[in-house]
Amino acid sequence: MKPLNLLVVAIRNEWLGLLEDSLSYAGYQFQIKKANSKQSAIKAFHEAKYDLLISNCILPDGKITDLANMLGSQLPCLVMTEGHCPVTAERVLAVAETNYYINCSNKLGWMPALEITLSKWENNAKQKLSQHVRNHDNLYKKVQARATELLSAQRHGAKGVKEVLDLLTEVMQLSRAYVCTATAGQHGGLQIEKRIEVNAPGVSLKHTLTQDPAEIPYLQRWTASFQAGRTVAEMTSLLTSHEQQWFARHDIQSLLAVPLHVNGQWAGYLAIEDTLNPREWSEAEEELMRSIALLIQQRNFTSSPTNLPDPALQSSLA
What we know:
Shape: elongated
CATH architecture of the largest domain: 2-Layer Sandwich
Strand content: 15-25%
Helix content: 25-40%
Distance between the termini: 45 Å
CATH superfamily of the largest domain: GAF domain
Oligomer: single chain
Largest sheet: 6 strands, mixed
Number of strands: 13
CATH class of the largest domain: Alpha Beta
Structural class: alpha+beta
Number of helices: 8
Radius of gyration: 28 Å
């Protein structure tokens, strides 16, 4: 079981010791960050990730409702209140608005409240994630339908492809989207040419850094994947130091590339980049990219990519 990371606010030491004892007795592994006020709790929240907030209902610098409203949508909360047991009159630390409490003679009495709170939060999070996935699936289906329209017979070629790349950049919040072609070079090697590129505001165009694609450290690895019809997903932090240097030249944090084929051979690729954040591409994003790549391939790569702009007008991939 992963240790619980707890943010405990304005709980006096005598009660904090009981909470720690009860968690240990119940078999939990945990770490506690103690905050003495609302402001210190907010500061701690922004500095680390927590699994649960446990707060006294009385804070020295504000109402508990202020803290709960601010943090309650981002982590589960238990509000505690000091009082007396209605049966024995012993002093207790109770979970607000429930019958659960903890004291020296009943250290585990509050445990059901903790477990219910964590369980409800986990279930709600799963439901929100599921809804988020469904929303994205519906959005991406609309993007695919729109891309089909843009790449229709009446609007195929460079204009349609650029409009599709504009659409992808906006909907997926990308930094760059572009299409590259691969052709045989003069000396038998590959020549990689970028044909069309779309950038988000403030993101610079890629510049030519080499005339020899063989110098690109990841080209051989990419070629093997493209030849096998596989998508390439890269995150800069997971690359070799040499590859990281090449990605850093274009400020790339994450990249996703899908091969384009002519007569069963890869002849180019559709790629997207995020230059701001390390990004693990979702299955839905990869599926959308594969569907868009197939549309571009069908409209523009039937025999050769002749209806895309002259590569001499564009920067190279590297």
